Every structure is written in C-alpha cells, then in structure tokens.
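Researcher: Go.
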Amino acid sequence: MLREIAARFTSVLAQRRAAVRKKVSVAVRVRFAPLFGAVGHIKNSEKLTLSGATTDISSCGVGMILPSIRIEQSYLVGEDRPLIVEMDIHDRTVILKVLGRRYEEIGEHLSTRRFLVGAEIVEMTPTDRVAYEYFIANYRKLSRKMPDVVELGRLD
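Model: Structure:
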C-alpha cells in the first residue's frame, strides 16, 4: 500500500513539473540551423526545408508531424544539431531554435508515411517569445478568428 501511495505521489509531481501541452495544429517549416564552419558558406541541407504541422505545443517544446526524418543525409533527431522552426501563428511568423529529441513513425502504409518529431525549444527572440506565449494562452480564441476556408467569388 505504501508503494502505491509513493508511486501516485511521484507521478503527480512529474505531471506538475512538465509544461502543459496544448493540442494545436499550426503550419511549420523546418530547416537546419547554419553551422559556422566556413564564413559565407551555407550547405544545401541548410537551405532545404520540410513543411509540416504541429500536433501540440508548450512553453518549452513542440510536437510536429513531418514527411521525413531527414533532410538530405542528415537526421533531424539524435545528432544534437539545432533546427530552425518557422511557425505561422495568428498574424505573424515566429522563429524557434529547437533540438530534436525524439521521433516516431506514424502512418500504416508507405504512401501515408509521416514522422512525429518532438523537439525542445532552446532559443527564441524576446518578441517571438511574447507572441508564442500569448498564442499558447489564447489559441482557442485566436483560432476562431482565423478563417479555415477562403471563398472565391465569381467574375461576372
């Protein structure tokens, strides 16, 4: 009985220690952060981007669904290589520097193959941080204001 109480107590502490995740789907673009090896030289893999969407966001991390786990020959997760994530929220683009921490393949068939990538936010400008935190706190209200469908009128 004491073990059960101790196990419940530690699980409650662990839940309170982690940041609250919000289930939000927002468009993202992911690319590698430039390495500063050669001055003025940017690798092709640093120019290429992957487009995807978020599954959840929190103040310290982001979960994304992406079409690939690599850009060219470099993996997004496991090499402690910083990634740049451009996230379109509300009325602006927020830029995050993240480290890919884990991934999981989702989709049952080769044609629906996608990857769920979990990333830790390591850097953000103060103005982007304010916009990002505001979006996390108000995403339900803000998503109602954003139109889902664009109506096209007829030309007569």
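Model: The chain has one domain: 20-145.
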